[in-house]
Write a structure and sequence with these properties.
By secondary structure, the chain is an alpha/beta fold. The protein contains 16 helices and 18 strands. The chain is globular and about 70 Å long. Helix 1 packs across helix 2, helix 5 packs parallel to helix 11 and helix 13 packs antiparallel against helix 14.
């Protein structure tokens, strides 16, 4: 089990759990691991989102990199996909994005990218941790003329704008129609400047909202994780389409003209149809994660497309795409990877592909969104002790309950149990035709997991203990133990 890196880099509360001292170590160890294969002083790019702690984390990272002897280019506020693109464009040895993505402002995080603009694999993250814990960081200290230097390059945002003009100018500019109006929610995050520049450059009729970051309002009741404001704006102002990005700009969700959500699964379906019509969908395949809705699978079956699922995390989607030669993949959350353009999720890129698909089809967003008939989905978190998150896999009672339920579904539902990568939770996700039925069944399995792995004493010991008591003491003890269970279940201390 890794100590620092989770499913999407390091993500913790800034200046406490993610202290400047820890960041310094992560930077120094990371520079060493990621620059092993270069015979010159490595160059590392750093981009960040708009949260208050960004410059604090950035300063500690710069210190760590320079101390190792790496040179740094500071990109300022920059979307994650822009950093990935610029890493390749500038032939940098590695890059870092300082962001906690969709989390609230008090969190921050660190994501490493390789010289190819891709999130580094688990093995490299583990190697960075090993170096951090080895006690050898002092040996990696540069001296005299080997100390690195930093350079501010906020001008490179325009390079990212040019990337879109290069790829979309011929296709999009002709769709500058007064009757097609788009509203874009930048979540007060990393896309707050560049999204407007891109859409203006391409001549798309648009309005920008939530583009006034103050360091604290990132993802605050806005963006891809909070669509309520966008939905209301679309309907009230009779917009053709609403677009929402997350804090670091690698996710995109949409809202149709009726205020209905178009999530990542629907985006994958719409874009797959669009690419296939142009004979540009590699191997007629969509790559998604096990969290994608069963409706996307059924859509793929109906359309004669191959549908491949990976474990949760866009890095694993990308790994499968690279391994097998696919060019479209993503997650329900809105990470969509279009590998012909960029090797990471790119919110702006996804939204432009969606706009092209809508306009070239001559249909409304709602009509395209309806091509996926989503199955009701329920997600319930079971609270467990952190060191027992994976024990459910070995429990016979839980395994039997899951197998019995899957047999009942007969292909029209599914059960997915997944430990959280960052919290003491086991996520119970069930899909099926009847939402109330699956909610009840999900709750039963979640309760079973909590009962088995949250209870403070082994059940056998409790049984023996109670057998030695008088009836009155048994009742009092049972009530006491029940109170402990409830306190744990609801997070009381």
């Amino acid at each position: 089990m890794r100590k620092y890196f989770g499913t999407d880099g390091i993500r913790r509360i800034a200046n406490t759990e993610l202290s400047p001292e820890l960041v310094y170590k992560v930077a120094k160890a990371g520079a060493y691991v990621l620059s092993k294969h270069t015979d010159k002083a490595p160059t590392i790019l750093i981009g960040r989102d708009t949260r208050l702690s960004g410059t604090l984390i950035e300063s500690a990272m710069v210190a760590g990199f320079l101390s190792y002897g790496a040179n740094v280019k500071l990109l300022g506020v920059m979307p994650t996909p822009a950093v990935a693109y610029l890493t390749r464009k500038l032939n940098a040895d590695a890059s870092v994005v300082i962001s906690a993505s969709h989390n609230t402002f008090e969190f921050n995080g660190i994501k490493y990218f390789s010289n190819k603009g891709m999130k580094i694999p688990d093995e490299l993250e583990e190697e960075i941790e090993e170096v951090m814990e080895s006690g050898k960081l002092d040996e990696l200290t540069a001296v005299k003329d080997k100390i690195g230097v930093s350079e501010v390059r906020i001008d490179l945002l325009d390079e990212y704008v040019y990337f879109f003009r290069k790829h979309f100018d011929d296709n999009i500019e002709k769709y500058n129609r007064p009757d097609f109006k788009v509203v874009i929610d930048t979540a007060n995050g990393a896309t707050y400047q560049v999204a407007d520049k891109v859409f203006k450059t391409l001549g798309i009729n648009h309005v920008i909202i939530n583009n006034h970051p103050d360091g604290i309002n990132i993802n605050d009741k806005c963006g891809s994780t909070h669509l309520e404001m966008l939905k209301e704006y679309v309907v009230k102002n009779k917009m053709s389409l609403g677009i929402a990005y997350d804090g670091d700009g690698d996710r995109c969700l949409a809202v149709d003209e009726n205020g209905e959500e178009i999530d990542g699964d629907k985006l994958l379906a719409i874009i797959s149809q669009y690419l296939r019509k142009q004979d540009k969908l590699a191997k007629d395949t969509i790559v998604a994660t096990v969290m994608s809705n069963l409706g996307l699978n059924k859509f793929a079956e109906k359309e004669g497309l191959n549908f491949i699922q990976t474990k949760v995390g866009d890095r694993y989607v990308l790994e499968e795409m690279l391994k097998s030669g696919y060019n479209l993949g993503g997650e329900q959350s809105g990470h969509v990877i279009l590998l012909d353009y960029n090797p990471t999720g790119d919110g702006i890129l996804t939204s432009l592909m969606l706009i092209q698909a809508i306009l070239e089809s001559g249909k409304k967003a709602s009509e395209l969104g309806s091509i996926v008939q989503k199955y009701p989905q329920v997600l319930i978190n079971a609270k467990v002790d952190s060191d027992k998150k994976y024990d459910y896999e070995k429990n016979v009672e839980i395994k039997n309950a899951i197998e019995k339920l899957e047999k009942e579904f007969s292909g029209n539902g599914r059960v997915l149990i997944r430990p959280s990568g960052t919290e003491p939770l086991v996520r119970v996700m069930i899909e099926g035709k009847d939402k109330e039925v699956i909610r009840e069944k999900a709750q039963k399995i979640a309760d079973l997991i909590e009962k088995t792995f949250l209870f403070p004493f082994p059940n056998l010991l409790v049984d023996v203990y109670l057998s030695l008591m008088t009836n009155s003491v048994k009742i009092l003890t049972a009530l006491f133990l029940e109170e402990i269970m409830n306190a744990k279940k609801f997070g009381k201390r």
